[in-house]
Amino acid sequence: MYYTDRGIEELEKRRGDEEVTLAWLADRLQEFTDLHPEFEVAVERLATWLAREDDPED
Length: 58
Hints:
There is one protein chain. By secondary structure, the chain is mainly α. The protein is 69% helix and 0% strand. It is built from three helices and no strands. It has helices at 3-15, 22-35, 40-52. The longest helix is centred in the middle third of the chain and has 14 residues, at 22-35. Pfam families: DUF6104. It comes from Nocardioides malaquae.
């Protein structure tokens, strides 16, 4: 099992019944990268991927 799998499972377990806004998610990602700047590129890639997920040109 990858660490990301465990993290995703924990997220689902703790927050699975909640509804969140994209603004909330963006704030949390920004807070995370402020605390852990070494993950800025990975968070940027995730955010870009999520933003373009349904875009047929990408």
